[in-house]
Design brief:
Bound molecules: adenosine-5'-triphosphate
InterPro entries: AAA+_ATPase (IPR003593), ABC_AA/LPS_Transport (IPR051120), ABC_transporter-like_ATP-bd (IPR003439), BCA_ABC_TP_C (IPR032823), P-loop_NTPase (IPR027417)
Protein name: ABC transporter ATP-binding protein
Keywords: ATP-binding, Nucleotide-binding, Transport
Organism: Chelatococcus reniformis
CATH superfamily of the largest domain: P-loop containing nucleotide triphosphate hydrolases
Strand order of the largest sheet: 6-7-8-3-9-10
CATH class of the largest domain: Alpha Beta
Strand content: 15-25%
Distance between the termini: 37 Å
Number of domains: 2
GO molecular function, one term: ATP hydrolysis activity
Number of strands: 10
Order of helices and strands: EEEHEEHEHHHHEHEHEEHH
Shape: globular
Length: 254
């Protein structure tokens, strides 16, 4: 579904990604792990159009997406969340999710400004759809009308996932979705991933919580210093000497 063909990205003299190749199939959870500075966020930015690769290409279902702006890539069915929350803190929680439906709305800016019936009808549909998504996310209705910024960090993370799902993606990239969550929130997040897969949305995770990664991933890629050093199932990756060396700072032979 997503193919990453020889992607490199440099920032001045820093080679954040070097000839990265990945083949991510539909219908499963693929995780990308690696120590700090390995290039994970840079890879997510390249895939989602927030960064242009210095070399190589990214294809989604055979169509080249590298080099396109984020909104075009989103319209092609690829949505993302961010490592640091990108939240509309002053909106009611439901409306944060509803903004994701904007991509599907047809009313013109003028209709919006004049509050014409076409614009109001779309708003009502977006609100109803947002409520369905909030139920899907298992967000207690007591929070729906509350200011998003007043929700706990874990609940705001859910809103961010809801907003991304509202764009109707076939593939969803989640950049460190468990960061800042407690143990029970992380367990619930793993269950939510399974529900998202069951909806027919493919998931790619960048995650530091290795327990979560091992529990939910069908396949794992390990990046270190901008290079893929291992790929496979949890056990395979866990036992890989290069992975141990990257994480523990040990010599691969040791
Ligand atoms: N905009 C930038 N300008 C310069 N260097 C950058 C930029 N973005 C990333 N880098 C560098 O590229 C390398 C990879 O960074 P990146 O943030 O992709 O790693 P990461 O694996 O996501 O790290 P972490 O797990 O700490 O979030 C690092 O050396 C980083 O300092």
């Amino acid at each position: 579904m997503l193919s990453i063909n020889g992607v490199s990205k440099s920032f001045g003299g820093v080679h954040a990604l070097r000839d990265v190749r990945m083949a991510i199939p539909a219908g499963v959870i693929t995780s990308v792990i690696g120590p700090n500075g390995a290039g994970k966020s840079t890879l997510m930015n390249v895939i989602s159009g927030y960064a242009t690769p210095s070399a190589g290409e990214v294809h989604l279902d055979g169509a080249r997406i590298s080099g396109l702006p984020p909104h075009r890539i989103c319209a092609m069915g690829l949505a993302r969340s961010f490592q640091n929350l990108q939240m509309f803190v002053d909106m009611p929680a439901w409306e944060v999710v509803a903004t994701g439906f904007y991509r599907h709305q047809r009313a013109s800016l003028l209709a919006d400004l004049l509050n014409l019936p076409s614009s109001r009808a779309e708003e009502r549909t977006a609100e109803a759809d947002a409520r369905k998504l909030l139920q899907f996310l298992d967000l207690d209705p007591v929070w729906w009308q509350r200011r998003a910024g007043d929700l706990s960090y874990g609940l705001q993370r859910k809103l961010e996932i809801g907003r991304a799902l509202a764009t109707g993606p076939r593939l969803l990239l989640l950049d460190e979705p468990a960061a800042g969550l407690n143990t029970s929130e992380t367990t619930a997040l793993g269950q939510l991933f399974r529900k998202i897969i069951a909806m027919g949305v493919t998931l790619v995770l960048v995650e530091h919580d290795l327990d979560l990664v091992m529990a939910v991933s069908d396949s794992i890629y390990v990046l270190d210093a901008g290079t893929v050093i291992a790929r496979g199932g949890g056990e395979e990756v866990r036992r890989d000497p290069l992975v141990m060396a990257a994480y523990l700072g040990l010599d691969a032979d040791a």
